[in-house]
Amino acid sequence: MDPLMVGLLALGATLILLALRVPIAAALGLAAAVGIFIIFSWRPGMDFNPAVAWRPTLSLLANSPYSFIASFNLATVPLFILMGHLAYEAGFTTDIYRAARLWLARIRGGVAMASVLGCGGFSAITGSSVACAAAMGRIAIPEMLRFGYSKSLATGSVAIGGTLGSLIPPSILFILYGIFTEQSIARLFMAAIVPGLLSLAAYLIVIAIWVRRNPAAAPDPGEEITAAERWRALGKCWSIIVLFAVVIGGIYVGLFTPSQAAGIGAYAALFLGLILGRLSLKGIISALRETVFQSSMIFAIAVAGKIYVSFISLTGLSSFIANWIEVSGASMLLVLAIIVLMYLLLGMFLDPIGIILLTLPLTIPIVESYGLSLIWFGVVVIKLLEIGLVTPPIGLNVFVIKSIVGERIRLETIFVGIGAFLLAEVVVLGMILGIPALSLWLPGMM
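^ thats the sequence. predicted structure below, dont judge the formating
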């Protein structure tokens, strides 16, 4: 059978498996393994021999995952996850939220703004949007409801703030993107800082407009907070600032590679937690357990994605699509619009890691054919995946928040709270697409 036809059939089969809710790792790995078997087993003029038919497939399945897992860069993933969980167990991530809440207490909607700022601070030391939404949801949502905030504003602000974990470095998605596209992870981290800050600012503006138009959505907490309390709370944030400065600052000035920075960051979080007496043995064990669980899940998907990428390369499907677009004479803007719509559509139904591994073999050759920067494109892709995390019908962050609030708040109420923020996301996405310098300026200064 023609390898190109096998590639097209396998792509369709993968989408069907994902629509049937088959786990992403299983869907990618199964489609790739069967496709490779067909390519090497049924060739024109060759007799089918069951005794040797599986050898090429088994060889690829044995060697490709090992060579991928043995990559030094991949060690960055569990180390950054560990750093984030150690900081959470030590209470460092809560400090930023508490400080922001006290400083913004006199502003209408200040608790919701503090929740978004807390998400931004949490994102600066962990690369998981879901973990960010889960952690801040347990802290901030009950407090907003206690102060009489509307349910949609309370849940929507935390759900959208959690998406910053995908964009603000260190981001697990950027690490995987860099590994699969062979781009500098350090430059990808730097490229995400300005768009990440723009997103955070956009969320704060949405909250300010929301409470101005509907004051009942955010009543005045009526708290009397002294200047001493504010400065005391701000002083407790030094640990999180040190972690971010060591990791991101060290990468920016060239002191560390991302892998080294991840190891140093994890050690620094452990050291600070112990000397400050805020990290117990139980907390360390909990952080290690969560790190193993999340890393195993990510590695399973990544290994299956690596096999899938090798399979797509064998079929020549990505080259065929790139050549077809070139022959068709489609403009760059049209192609980008199609890619954006594809990611937005997939983001409504699939996990971000699965989307990256499913689409990169097809989109990267197209982007390269137009001479576009893969660093800039990486920021665009992660921003699109960030939007997908809160887009109905399946927004992972929304369902994480729903699991926290239980039956107290309807799922539809959370999605209503997301609506206004999605408009801001479209504006920020347009700025990233229209002004590549927003993403490329900081890496160019390295």
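DSSP finds 23 helices and no strands in the chain.
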